[in-house]
Amino acid sequence: MQNLGINVFLKGRNMIRLFEGLMVTARIALIAIIIGSLLGIVLGVVWTSKSKWIRSVCRIYLEMFRIIPILVWLFIMYFGVTTVLNIDLSGEFVSIIVFTLWGAAEMGDIVRGALESLPKHQIESGKAIGLSFWGLYRYILIPQAVRRMLPGAINLATRMVKTTSLVVLIGVIDVIKVGQQIIETSRIEVPTASFWVYGFLFILYFVICYPLSVLSRRLENKWNG
Amino acid sequence: MNLNWQFIIDSLPLYREAAWTTLKLGFWGILFSLMIGFICSIVLYFKVKVLKTIVHIYIELSRNTPLLIQLFFLYFGLTKVGIALTETACAIIGLSFLGGSYMAEAFRSGFEAVSKTQIESGLSIGLSKTQLVRYVVLPQAFSVSIPSIGANCIFLLKETSIVGAIAVVDLMNVTKDLIGMYYQTLEALLMLVVIYLVMILPLSLILTWLERKVRYAEFGN
Question: What is the ipTM of this complex?
Answer without folding.
Answer: 0.87
